[in-house]
Each structure stands twice: as structure tokens, then as C-alpha cells.
Amino acid sequence: MRILVPFEAADPKTRLDVVLDADERDGVARAMLRDVLRACLNAGHDPEVVATAPVEVDDAPVTVDDRPLSAAVNARLGGTAPLGVVVADLALATPEAVDCLVDAAADADVAIAPGRGGGTNGLVIDHRDFRVDFHGASYRDHVAAARDVDADLAVVDSMRLSTDVDEPADIVEVLLHGEGEAAAWLGERFELDAGEGRVGVDRVG
């Protein structure tokens, strides 16, 4: 299956600026992108990066599209074949998790993997009239959009697909559960702080 992987190439991961400088944010964003691409490829799919600016990757073709995410994705919908969308900051993504998303679409017009906090981290769309809207509480909006066009909907309950890395607290999940390049990158710079209460992270050194 063709899977779009949208990527903010110009100024990624701005909400991590309290713990990472601009070069570091760029580094971890690209590491997560490569992890996602490998997960899609190893699951037997055909990922394509849709980036806001040129970016070099070895594992997939890159199309530059500086429009907002929703517009860039919607411009590629409406064909006769199912289309997947997987966001680029899923540092815990595995081939098995990607397959769960794709398999859920076998009996549905739209399969959706919610993100924590109301977002949408993955979609498989096989309905000519369905369109995406990634702003705000996009999971709720995508459920409503599917109903509006009478599309059968499947929801994928996956910790690995729900964990996108936007906030410093998300780094904890990557250090605990990650096995890819982004986990190794973050592990060189952060360590878990398992004191009293909720687990956090500290900079190394």
C-alpha cells in the first residue's frame, strides 16, 4: 500500500525546544522519520515522504509540498486505491503496528489510529469522499467526517501508533519502549528519572 508520511522539514518539533536546541530537534525529527519509513517498508508497504522543504532520505521518495498538512494530504485523496497516512514522529512504530492499521482497513472504508490528546497519527482511506482535517481534536473530527460520508470506520487501539513525540514527557515512552534510531539518539542525551511519582527524564551530563 502507498503510505504518505508527512514531515515538517523547516522547523520541526518546536514544543521540544525547552529540552532540545534547533539542531537537536532537527536531528531527532529525522531519526523518527527514518524509523517510521523502515516500519512501513518492513511491513511490505510503499512509503512516500511529503515534506514542507527538501529532505534527503534513503528509504523513500520525497515530494516537497509546503501547503498545510490537511491540504497536502487531501490533494492526494480520491483515487481508486486505498491510501495510508502515518505521521513522521512515531518513534515506537514497528512493522506489526503498521500492519494493524492496514489490516483494520480490510473491512472498513476508513481506519484510524488515534493519537494521545485527541490527534490522529494514522489513517487508511478507501473512500472517494472522505477528506482529512488534522487541526485541533482531529480524531473526533475524522470520526464525524466518516459518518458524514457514510464511510465504515475502524479504530485501531495501538500504544505504538498513539505515541507521537511532541512534548518532553513523550521522551519517557521512547526510552522505555523504543528500539529504533530515535530511541538510540535520545538515549545518548537523556536518562530516565524514576524517582517518587511519575517517571521523567534528565539530560545526561
Walkthrough of the structure:
- It is a single chain.
- With 205 residues, the protein is an alpha/beta fold.
- The protein contains seven helices and nine strands, in the order βαββαβαββαβαααββ.
- The chain is globular, with a radius of gyration of 17 Å.
The shape is: globular
Main sheet summary: 7 strands, mixed
Mean pLDDT reading: 95
**What percentage of amino acids are in beta strands?**
15-25%
List unreliable stretches of 5+ residues: none
CATH 4th-level superfamily: Spore Coat Polysaccharide Biosynthesis Protein SpsA, Chain A
Question: Which CATH architecture would you pick?
Answer: Alpha-Beta Complex
Distance between the termini: 44 Å
CATH class (first level) name: Alpha Beta
Order of helices and strands: EHEEHEHEEHEHHHEE
CA radius of gyration is: 17 Å
Q: How much helix, percentage-wise, in residues?
A: 25-40%
- Strand segment tally: 9
Q: Give the number of helices.
A: 7
| Spatial sequence of strands, sheet with the most strands | 3-2-1-4-6-5-7
CATH structural fold name = Spore Coat Polysaccharide Biosynthesis Protein SpsA, Chain A
Number of domains: 1
* Class from helix and strand fractions: alpha/beta
Present the secondary structure layout.
Elements (H helix, E strand, L loop, with lengths): L1 E6 L14 H21 L3 E6 L10 E3 L4 H6 L8 E4 L8 H10 L5 E5 L5 E6 L12 H11 L4 E3 L3 H4 L7 H8 L3 H7 L2 E4 L6 E4 L2
Helix pairs in contact: 1-3, 1-7, 6-7
Short description:
The chain is of the alpha/beta class and 205 residues long. The protein has helices at residues 22-42, 69-74, 95-104, 138-148, 159-162, 170-177, 181-187, and strands spanning 2-7, 46-51, 62-64, 83-86, 110-114, 120-125, 153-155, 190-193, 200-203. A 7-stranded mixed sheet has the order 3-2-1-4-6-5-7, sandwiched between helices. A two-stranded antiparallel ribbon has the order 8-9.
